[in-house]
Recover the amino acids of this structure.
């Protein structure tokens, strides 16, 4: 038995320093999910592994004969009330509905749905760096690989909306009907299987615009066939939604697919109309001068110019692009590439001494890459969204993310139909 209650304070910091591991750590994910769901009954899905997590931490400070089941249980209950709530994006105190966040990335869907009074009760993301960002901003470690049956076993029942920005993959449907079984082995199949088993009231799927023409249209045709005919959901025609039409200075088109369970009697749905509030690049640029590390070297600038000239001679429009302050950025590209397509002119730099290894000198024209914070703003993430990874990972994460205002506007339409 742990004799001194105050001794719990000595292990609080260790308990809350939940590490993000490369492989799935079901106990750590369960612990963070338990702390965030103790009020809504969903905690039962996570309690066993949360107790195991607490027991593992206690073993580092106490002998095994001191750590009884009662002590572990009391410690977990204690931590509910002492839990660290310093993360910037906590769930609303009185949520109106529950949702799950699959292929969560850094939480763009979660941010949008929380802004509309939703409570996220399960999240999954396999990339360890995205998990770090997710934990820093929402206080939870996402579960890992959603193709694993163990991962799916933690998904609770009775949530209202399923959200997923699943990757685009081709299906092997030659000469077949293109139904549920034909999607096996793809990540869409995992989403469809969860919808089939859990029967949420609605789902909201997001993908690249190219899904519409992928495999000559067969991929989207199969997806809609599965959602409508195999799963029995009302699915209106998908819509191509552009971030620039929802208050972001970025030309980013994505396909949105929403659906409603047939027993709800929903037979119509309208995607949100553009708000077109004339934002421009200048609205997202850094207020202060940025580090010299974002400025291109003269050697690299010449390489970009040569590359653009070669493509121009071939009749192609490829190459670097400098976006004017009153213009609209090109899409921040999936994977974080394409920074050279969104260069800006910023002549505020006064110290041209490099802080990284470069070939040549820092250019004097004021040409620089956009910063990770500027990419975050292009995607609609507020400035208190924490960037806790390297610049390379941050570019990748924001490039892979959803445009939050476009997601939120569509989510509002879904919730209106559900009367939330």
């Amino acid at each position: 038995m742990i004799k001194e209650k105050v001794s719990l304070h000595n292990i609080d910091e260790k308990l809350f320093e939940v590490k993000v591991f490369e492989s799935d750590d079901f106990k750590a994910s369960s612990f963070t999910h338990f702390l965030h769901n103790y009020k809504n009954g969903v905690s039962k899905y996570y309690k066993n592994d949360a107790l195991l997590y607490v027991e593992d931490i206690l073993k580092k400070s106490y002998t095994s004969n001191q750590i009884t089941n009662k002590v572990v249980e009391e410690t977990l209950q204690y931590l509910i009330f002492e839990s660290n709530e310093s993360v910037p994006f906590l769930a609303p105190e009185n949520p109106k509905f529950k949702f799950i966040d699959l292929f969560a990335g850094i939480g763009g869907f979660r941010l949008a749905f929380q802004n509309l009074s939703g409570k996220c009760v399960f999240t999954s993301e396999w990339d360890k760096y995205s998990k770090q960002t997710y934990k820093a901003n929402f206080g939870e470690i996402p579960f890992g690989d959603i193709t694993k049956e163990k991962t799916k076993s933690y998904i609770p029942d009775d949530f209202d909306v399923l959200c997923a920005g699943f990757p685009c993959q081709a299906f092997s449907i030659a000469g077949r009907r293109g139904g549920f079984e034909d999607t096996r082995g793809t990540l869409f199949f995992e989403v469809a299987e969860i919808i089939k088993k859990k029967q949420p009231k609605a789902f909201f799927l997001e993908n690249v615009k190219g899904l519409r023409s992928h495999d000559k249209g067969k991929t989207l045709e199969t997806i809609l066939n599965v959602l409508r005919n195999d799963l029995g959901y009302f699915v209106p025609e998908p819509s191509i939604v552009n971030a620039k039409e929802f208050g972001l200075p970025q030309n980013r088109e994505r396909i949105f697919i929403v659906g409603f369970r047939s027993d709800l009697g929903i037979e119509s749905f309208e995607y949100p109309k553009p708000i077109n509030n004339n934002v421009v690049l200048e609205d997202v640029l850094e207020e202060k001068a940025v580090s010299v590390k974002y400025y291109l070297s003269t050697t690299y600038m010449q390489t970009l110019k040569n590359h653009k000239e070669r493509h121009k001679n071939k009749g192609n429009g490829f190459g670097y692009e400098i976006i004017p302050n009153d213009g609209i950025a090109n899409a921040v590209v999936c994977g974080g590439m394409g920074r050279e397509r969104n260069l800006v002119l910023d002549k505020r730099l006064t110290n041209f001494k490099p802080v990284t290894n470069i070939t040549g000198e820092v250019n004097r024209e004021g040409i620089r890459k956009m910063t990770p914070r500027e990419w975050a703003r292009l995607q609609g993430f507020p400035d208190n969204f924490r960037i806790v990874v390297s610049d390379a990972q941050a570019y990748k994460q924001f490039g892979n993310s959803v445009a939050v205002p476009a997601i939120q506007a569509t989510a509002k339409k879904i919730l209106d139909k559900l009367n939330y």
